[in-house]
Amino acid sequence: MDFEPTVEQKMIIKTATEIAQDFGPEYWREKDKNHQFPAEFWKALAEAGFHGMVIPEKYGGSGLGMLEMALAMDTLAAEGCGLAGPGMLVLTAVMASLAITKYGSEYLKEKYLPKIAKGEFEFCIGITEPDAGTNTLNTKTFARKEEDGSYTINGQKIFISGADHANGIILVTRTTPLEKAPKKTFGISLFVIDLPNPSIEAIPIEKHGLNYINSCEVYLSDVRVPKENLLGEEGKGWYYLLDMLNPERISFAAACTGTGMIAIKKAVEYARERNVFGVPIGRYQAIQFPLAEAKAKIEAARLMTCKAAKLYDEGKPCGAETNMAKVAAVEAGTQAVYHAMQTFGGYGYAVEYDVERWWREINLVRLAPVTQQMALAFIGERVLGLPRSY
């Protein structure tokens, strides 16, 4: 087992470090305050080739894997961006790119992948619904097939990040109603739809953090979609979706470990400089031990994240590893940011020190892309062999 990064991976880490240092905490503080999309950062990622990292060379990408992407994401977060930096890569550079690469027709690949690789196309992913929540099989958004082979889609989605800004959406629908499906996993279909679309309305939801990109309610009213925009085969979208969610979990695990590390580094700097009773507060074990423990847990979560990414890249089963990586990384990252805030004391609550923003952001990942409880339920059932709990 070789833990030494390859030459190419070292270059990716170096490039990610340079980008993160150019777009440090002050940049994200202003973007969050003003609710602005980080267009300059998006462009920098494009110039570095990060948007096309997992896209095959044939379509303008680098043909690399999720391990390289995870290293880039962790580094972006740890070296200055926090959760926001890698968050800009998840939907388009990871989920959309991999879905279209693995399941899209040649038409869809040629239409979208080169644009993604150049940073010219931004995707959102339309999964969650108000009534279905985590139970995607209960999706009500329905795509009715017309006589000419096209589809008419009606329905509603919620918490769709970037829906008001993106150039396209990968939409999860039912093409067979749940009650008529031979089994509940059949009848889910995915479509690639260009935005804006006059039959699609996106309404931003005011939220707690990550204000660089809006999360939206999305209403679809008689949206006409040509048959060429069906992703893969009709009715088999559930299996495509599961495959998309594994790299999503790897991505957020890397984002959490990186965010935890930037919080620890800032806390350590402060603990060395801040004097109370004549000595630096970093001398006290009440400060040292929580940060040291958080660091140890982050390094362990990083290893699990890399293992999950490597298994995914090798085409091996990785559901257990991606869920364990997500659970471990979220807990480690959350603990790190929490203890960083405690180290700063009252200053940790001040916007100018950035810790409160990382706290707001990392707590989202306890809820999405899957709750900690659902990830634990997966581990309980699929890894430990316990009875199904839901």
Give a quick rundown of the structure:
This protein has helices at residues 7-22, 25-34, 39-47, 66-81, 84-103, 106-117, 237-273, 285-313, 319-344, 355-362, 372-383; strands at 123-126, 142-145, 151-161, 168-174, 188-194, 200-205, 215-225, 230-231, 275-276, 279-280.
Description:
- This protein has about 400 residues and is of the alpha+beta class.
- The chain folds into 3 domains: about 5-115, Butyryl-Coa Dehydrogenase, subunit A, domain 1, CATH 1.10.540.10; about 125-235, Butyryl-CoA Dehydrogenase, subunit A, domain 2, CATH 2.40.110; about 240-385, Butyryl-CoA Dehydrogenase, subunit A, domain 3 (Up-down Bundle).
- Helix content is about 50%, strand content about 15%.
- It is built from 11 helices and 10 strands.
- The chain has helices at about 5-20, 25-35, 40-45, 65-80, 85-105, 105-115, 235-275, 285-315, 320-345, 355-360, 370-385, and strands at about 125, 140-145, 150-160, 170-175, 190-195, 200-205, 215-225, 230, 275, 280.
- A 4-stranded mixed beta sheet has the order 1-4-5-8, with helices on one face. The protein has a 4-stranded antiparallel beta sheet with strand order 2-3-7-6, with no helix packed on it. A two-stranded antiparallel sheet has the order 9-10.
- Strand 9 and strand 10 form a beta hairpin.
- It is globular, with a radius of gyration of 21 Å.
- The model has no long low-confidence stretch (mean pLDDT about 95).
